[in-house]
Design brief:
The complex is a heterodimer of chains A (143) and B (139). Chain A has 143 residues and is mostly helical. Chain A contains 7 helices and no strands. In chain A, α5 packs antiparallel against α6. In chain B, 71% of the residues lie in helices and 0% in strands. The longest helix of chain B has 23 residues. Chain B starts with 10 loop residues before the first helix and ends with a helix. The chains are: A mainly alpha (143), B mainly alpha (139).
């Protein structure tokens, strides 16, 4: 029922998924608190073992190549990693050209149409708007 | 899932927030996988120190009293806790009667009226709809 399926992937796939997200954090050479919080949130959802978490944290400092990250992903894991890579890229409020270029490479690797990027970006914007509407409700409580 | 403000609370508040989520998830007697995932996700977005996460995991079988955790929270922290309590209660597919009661209790402690509480319930349903749409994008 949880509106996510990361936990249904195999442990190896979840590790590959997290590795790709670690790669994404380094694309624009700037790791903001928002990106880190998003990364940690997704890592929590992936229910990685302590050892895998350690390896992923190492990957944050010295990320593997994109090709290495993509190699271990099944189609389903790849699509979820793409979606969450977009969420990560957008976490600081802006998806820059370098990030878009990487996202398009992931899309090409997965054999998905290029318009997947726009569709997922639109979905991400809706999601952030929805999140904001939650804060609006909370802010009204404080008035 | 989307960007959040929980990590703007103090570290002690974030710990209490996570402990409160354990108390809410445990209220219907059993912790299911979905609830555990939500707790891990909340600890992640809170950027809790790894040792604090271990402390929270250690409370899974013996949750900290709800009132104690609420006492540690600021007004904003209480409101965020109420929002996330609804989310964590919804994640196993339905709201158990005990969960509804505990959410009402948190709302009371947070000074939130019923109409606003209803708005938060609606907002959580929208989350599920919004999130489920992501899986249809590739179809």
């Amino acid at each position: 029922m949880l509106p996510d399926t990361i936990h249904k992937l195999s442990r190896e796939e979840r590790f590959s998924y997290a590795r790709l997200l670690a790669f994404m954090t380094r694309v624009d050479n700037e790791l903001t608190v928002d990106e880190m919080a998003m990364f940690e949130q997704r890592l929590g959802t992936a229910l990685l073992s302590p050892k895998q978490r350690e390896l992923i944290r190492h990957a944050l400092k010295a990320p593997p190549s994109l090709e290495e990250c993509l190699a271990g992903l099944s189609d389903e894991a790849g699509r979820l990693a793409l979606r969450d890579s977009i969420l990560m890229a957008a976490a600081d409020g802006n998806v820059d050209d370098d990030e878009k270029a990487v996202l398009l490479k992931i899309i090409a690797h997965l054999g998905l149409p290029e318009e997947s990027l726009d569709k997922l970006l639109k979905w991400t914007v809706k999601g952030y708007n929805w999140m904001q509407s939650g804060y609006d409700i909370l802010n009204e409580l404080s008035e | 899932m989307f960007s959040d403000l929980v990590n703007e609370l103090t570290m002690d508040e974030r710990l209490s927030h996570a402990q409160l989520m354990v108390a809410v998830a445990s209220v219907d007697g059993e912790l299911v996988l979905e609830e555990l995932i939500m707790i891990e996700s909340i600890m992640g977005k809170s950027m809790l120190h790894p040792e604090m996460r271990v402390d929270v995991r250690n409370t899974l079988s013996h949750p900290v009293e709800l009132e104690k955790s609420m006492e540690m929270l600021s007004r904003r922290g209480k409101q965020l806790a109420l929002r996330d309590a609804i989310m964590i209660s919804a994640c196993d597919g339905e709201y158990d009667k005990k969960e509804i009661r505990v959410i009402a209790k948190i709302a009371k402690l947070a000074g939130v009226e019923k109409t606003k509480l209803s708005q938060l319930y609606e907002w959580v349903s929208e989350y599920w709809e919004c999130f489920n749409k992501s899986s249809t994008i590739f179809e």
